[in-house]
Design a protein that fits this description.
Layout: H1 4-12, E1 83-84, H2 90-97, H3 103-112, E2 113-116, E3 120-124, E4 130-133, H4 135-143, H5 152-155, E5 157-158, E6 166-167, E7 173-181, H6 183-191, H7 198-217, E8 226-232, E9 237-246, E10 249-254, H8 257-260, H9 264-267, E11 279-285, E12 288-289, E13 297-298, E14 308-313, H10 324-356, H11 359-382, H12 385-404, H13 414-434, H14 439-442, H15 444-461, H16 463-469, H17 481-499, H18 504-510, H19 515-525, H20 531-539, H21 550-591, E15 604-609, E16 613-615, E17 618-620, E18 623-625, H22 626-635, H23 653-656, E19 659-664, E20 676-678, E21 683-691, E22 709-713, H24 714-723, H25 728-735
Parallel strand pairs: 13-21
Antiparallel strand pairs: 1-15, 2-3, 2-7, 3-4, 4-11, 5-10, 6-10, 7-9, 8-9, 10-11, 11-12, 14-15, 14-20, 16-17, 18-19, 19-22, 20-21, 21-22
Helix pairs in contact: 1-15, 6-7, 7-21, 10-11, 10-13, 10-17, 13-21, 15-16, 15-21, 17-18, 17-19, 18-21
Length: about 750
C-alpha cells in the first residue's frame, strides 16, 4: 500500500488519532515501583475480606435472570491478579498457597522470564540459553529463515546440530534486570506544570521521563541496558526498567503450522483444545550459546487438579480501572464500531485472497478474525448486566473506602469528571471515527483525497511546510481495484449507519446509489491515480479546493469535520488521561498494592490453580490428550483447519495417552502469549497460548470462576518432540537422556 499520506501526516503534525478507531496495536505502556510503601498484596479492605481460599470469585448470575444491582457485590479479584515484580506478593502467595516465595524465588522467576521482541513473552528453559515461546509468536521469525525451496510452515524445523540453528535477523529478547521507583520525580514534575493544563502536565511527564532515562543511561549498573519508563495505575505510580537485550537469537525447533495452529480460527478461544503452539530458540552471546543459571527446568508431570500454578509474562493491556461511564461508552459506541470495521475489512480481504492466495494477506485475515472474536466476547461482557453491576459495585465501594480514609473532597469528584468528559466524547464520536482518514477506514484513494485537502490547507496557512511536502504528493498505485472498492463500500455503509442517510457527507457520497454502487462509481470517475493530475495539484495546491473530482468533493465535506472533531477528541483524551492518572493514584492511596495495576506489556506474575469448569451442559477436563487431537482430525475428515501433516498420520500408541493441553484459573491477556506456566518449585509445567471464550471480558474485569487460561502441557511438548520429530538433542536438553522410542504398530 502507498504510505505517502502517513509520511505527510507525521511530518506536518497531523494526528490521525489511531486510538479512536480501535485497531491500534497494544500500547507498550508501563508500570511503578512502591519502595516507599509496605508491600501488601492481600485483597483490598472493603472490596473483599481477607481471603485464603484458592477459589474466591463471586458466583455469576444465571444468564437471562433478573439482576438487582443493589445485591451484586464486587468480586475479590475483579481488578485481576497481574502482580508486579516491584512489589511481589510474597505474603499473599504464602497465605493462599503455602508457597515460600521469598526475594530469591521472585528474582529467579524474573530473570528466567523474557520479553520476546515487542509483542510476546518467553522464558529460558535450559542453562544453555534455550528459549521457549509460542508457535504463533515465532511463526514470522521461523519462516523468515527458510531457504530457497523450503516451506517451514508445511514441514516445521529442527536443528539437529548446533551448527544448524538459524539466526533470525532483527529478533531480540529482553531480560528485566533492574527496577527503580521514579514516582515522586515524575509526579513532582507534573504538579509543577501549568495548573489546569492537561497538555502541559503530559509534556512535563514526558520531559521527566527523558531526563531520568538520560541520567540512568550513564549510572553504574544501568549502563548498556535498554531503558523503559513504566506507568502503573494509569499514572498513579511510575518505574524505570532496565533490560539486558540479546540480539543473537537462533531458531532451534518449530512444528508445522497445522500443529501450531491446529483448529485455526474455529478453535480459537475455545476449550478443549489440541494445539502444539510452541517453538524453541537459543540465545547466543559472543557467538556461543548463552550460559545462564536463570531458567525454568522442565517438569513433564507437574499438572494436577487443584495444583497452584503461576504465569510470568508481559500482559499487553487491560482497562479494569475504567469507570462505569467509560465502559458504557465502549459498550455503546467504541466496541460496536470496531467490530464493524473488523468484520467488513476481513470480508473484503477474504474475497480478495480467494484468488490472490497470499500468505501475508492470510495472516492479516487471521489477525482481523482473531480480533473480531476477541471484541465480540468483550462486547458480550459489557452487555452482561451482572458483570456491569459488579463494576458499579466496585466503584461504589471504592468511593466509600476513599471517604473512610478522609481523602479531600476534590478527589471524590473524579468519577463525575470522567463521566462529564465521556459525555462530551459521545458528541464527537461519529465525526472523529467514521470520517477518520485511514486506509483501514476508507481505503487508499479517499484517504489520499483527505491528505490532498490537508496539503491544500497547508499551502495557505504554512506555505513553507507545503513546499517541503510537495515531493510527497504522488499519485497512489492501487494493489487491487476490487479490494479498494470493497474498502470504500464498507466505509460508506458504516458512514450511512453512523452518520445517518441525511448527513451531507453520506448524501454526497451515495447520491441515490447503494454503498457498493457508489464505491464503484467514485473509483471509476476519480482522477487521483492520474500522475499528471496529481502533479498539477502538487504545484497548484490552491486548485485542490475547486478541482473537479468526486473523491475530492467528498473529502471537502468530511475532512474539516473530522479535523474539528478529532481535535476535540484529542483534548478530551488528554483530559481523561490526566483524570485516570489521578484516579489511579487514589486507588493506590486507598488500597496500596493489594490491587495490582492494569496490564501495560510489562513483566507480571499471576497466580491460579489447575481446574476444570462447566461448559455446554457438561464439564471441561483439566487436560486433553493426543488421542483427542486425532479424534478431532478424524471427526472433521482430515479437512483444514483440522488436517494433519504426513509425519503425524501413524503415531505410536504411547503418544496417544500423553497430555497435550491443560487449563487453569490464571489471569492472562494478549501479550501473555509465550508465557511460561510454572509450579511452586520454579519448574516449567506448561506454556500459555490462549484463553477460553469466557475469558474475553478480561479486558475490563477478571472473573476466575469461568475464566480459563489454556497452556500446552510440558509433557505434551516433550512427547511430540520425542515421538514425532525424533529430536533427541532437544529432548535431552529439556529433560535428560530420552528413553528409546517405541516402534510404530
Amino acid at each position: 500500500m502507498v504510505r505517502i499520506h502517513r509520511r505527510l501526516a507525521v511530518w506536518s503534525g497531523f494526528l490521525m488519532l489511531n486510538g479512536l478507531i480501535g485497531l491500534s496495536s497494544l500500547t507498550l505502556a508501563q508500570v511503578p515501583a512502591t519502595a516507599n510503601r509496605p508491600a501488601s498484596t492481600t485483597p483490598a479492605a472493603g472490596v473483599t475480606t481477607a481471603e485464603t481460599k484458592v477459589s474466591t470469585a463471586a458466583t455469576p448470575a444465571i444468564p437471562g435472570a433478573y439482576i438487582n444491582p443493589d445485591t451484586v457485590k464486587a468480586g475479590p479479584f475483579d481488578m485481576g491478579k497481574m502482580w508486579t515484580f516491584d512489589n511481589p506478593p510474597k505474603d499473599y502467595f504464602r497465605k493462599t498457597y503455602n508457597v515460600n516465595a521469598d526475594d530469591k524465588w521472585f528474582e529467579q522467576a524474573r530473570l528466567a522470564s523474557l520479553r520476546f521482541a515487542d509483542y510476546c513473552s518467553a522464558s529460558f528453559v535450559s542453562p544453555n540459553g534455550l528459549v521457549m515461546t509460542n508457535h504463533h509468536c515465532a511463526r514470522e521469525s521461523g519462516t523468515g529463515v527458510q531457504r530457497k525451496g523450503e516451506d517451514l510452515n508445511a514441514t516445521g524445523f529442527f536443528a539437529k546440530t548446533p551448527a544448524e540453528e538459524r539466526k533470525v535477523e532483527g529478533l531480540f529478547v529482553d531480560q528485566l534486570v533492574k527496577l527503580e521507583d521514579i514516582t515522586n520525580r515524575v509526579q513532582q514534575a507534573m504538579s509543577g506544570a501549568e495548573a489546569g493544563s492537561e497538555q502541559a502536565q503530559l509534556r512535563a511527564r514526558e520531559q521527566a521521563f527523558a531526563t531520568i532515562k538520560q541520567e540512568y543511561a550513564s549510572k553504574e549498573g544501568w549502563q548498556g541496558l535498554e531503558l523503559q519508563t513504566i506507568t502503573f495505575y494509569n499514572g498513579g505510580r511510575y518505574a524505570l526498567y532496565g533490560f539486558k537485550r540479546y540480539n543473537d537469537v537462533r531458531l532451534v525447533f518449530m512444528p508445522e503450522l497445522q500443529l501450531g495452529f491446529f483448529g485455526g480460527d474455529p478453535d480459537n478461544f475455545t476449550y478443549p483444545r489440541y494445539a502444539l503452539d510452541c517453538s524453541f530458540f537459543r540465545v547466543y552471546d559472543n557467538g556461543k550459546p548463552l550460559q545462564t543459571t536463570h531458567f525454568f527446568k522442565f517438569n513433564t508431570n507437574g499438572v494436577r487438579d487443584g495444583e497452584p500454578i503461576f504465569v510470568i509474562g508481559n500482559p499487553g493491556r487491560t482497562e479494569r480501572l475504567k469507570t462505569v461511564a467509560e465502559l458504557e461508552y465502549d459498550r455503546d459506541l467504541q466496541v460496536p464500531f470496531t467490530l464493524q470495521l473488523l468484520r467488513n475489512r476481513s470480508n473484503a480481504l477474504q474475497a480478495y485472497n480467494a484468488t490472490a492466495k497470499n500468505d501475508s494477506i492470510l495472516n492479516e485475515i487471521f489477525s482481523l478474525e482473531n480480533s473480531y472474536k476477541a471484541y465480540t466476547g468483550q462486547l458480550a461482557g459489557l452487555r452482561d448486566p451482572y458483570l456491569m453491576a459488579r463494576k458499579a459495585a466496585f466503584e461504589k465501594q471504592f468511593q466509600a473506602d476513599a471517604r473512610a480514609k478522609n481523602v479531600s473532597a476534590d478527589r471524590l469528584t473524579l468519577w463525575d469528571d470522567l463521566a462529564a468528559s465521556t459525555t462530551q466524547l459521545r458528541s464527537v464520536f461519529a465525526a472523529s471515527n467514521y470520517l477518520a482518514p485511514s486506509e483501514r477506514i476508507m481505503g487508499e484513494l479517499l484517504t489520499f483525497a483527505n491528505v490532498l485537502m490537508q496539503y491544500g490547507e497547508l499551502s495557505t496557512s504554512r506555505p513553507d511546510a507545503a513546499e517541503s511536502a510537495r515531493s510527497l504528493v504522488v499519485a497512489p498505485k492501487l494493489r487491487n481495484r476490487a479490494l479498494e472498492e470493497a474498502y470504500l463500500a464498507a466505509h460508506l455503509t458504516e458512514a450511512q449507519i453512523g452518520l445517518g442517510s441525511d448527513d451531507p457527507y453520506v448524501r454526497t457520497a451515495l447520491n441515490g446509489r447503494s454503498p457498493k454502487e457508489a464505491a464503484a462509481y467514485l473509483i471509476s470517475n476519480t482522477k487521483l491515480t492520474d500522475p499528471a493530475f496529481i502533479k498539477d495539484l502538487a504545484v497548484r495546491p490552491q486548485a485542490i479546493r475547486s478541482a473537479d473530482d468526486p473523491l475530492l468533493a467528498l473529502a471537502r465535506i468530511g475532512f474539516s469535520r473530522y479535523v474539528t472533531a478529532a481535535r476535540q477528541a484529542r483534548q478530551l483524551f488528554q483530559t481523561q488521561e490526566v483524570l485516570r492518572g489521578q484516579l489511579g493514584r487514589l486507588l493506590y492511596d486507598v488500597y496500596g498494592t493489594s490491587i495490582p495495576p492494569d496490564a501495560t506489556f510489562s513483566l507480571r506474575i499471576n497466580d491460579g490453580v489447575v481446574r476444570g469448569y462447566a461448559y455446554n451442559g457438561t464439564r471441561a477436563p483439566i487436560m486433553t490428550t493426543f488421542a483427542g487431537l486425532y479424534d478431532r482430525n478424524y471427526s472433521f475428515g482430515d479437512k483444514a483447519p483440522w488436517n494433519l501433516p504426513a509425519r503425524w498420520k501413524n503415531p505410536p500408541a504411547e503418544l496417544l495417552r500423553q497430555p497435550m493441553c491443560f487449563i487453569s484459573t490464571n489471569d492472562i491477556i494478549g501479550g501473555n502469549s509465550g508465557s511460561p506456566m510454572i509450579n511452586k518449585n520454579l519448574e516449567a509445567v506448561g506454556l500459555v497460548f490462549d484463553g477460553n471464550m469466557e475469558s474475553l471480558p478480561g479486558e475490563f474485569i477478571f472473573v476466575p470462576d469461568l475464566n480459563r487460561s489454556i497452556s500446552v502441557h510440558a509433557g505434551g511438548m516433550v512427547a511430540a518432540i520425542r515421538y514425532i520429530y525424533k529430536a533427541d538433542r532437544l529432548v535431552k536438553e529439556l529433560v535428560g537422556t530420552p528413553p528409546a522410542v517405541p516402534a510404530k504398530k
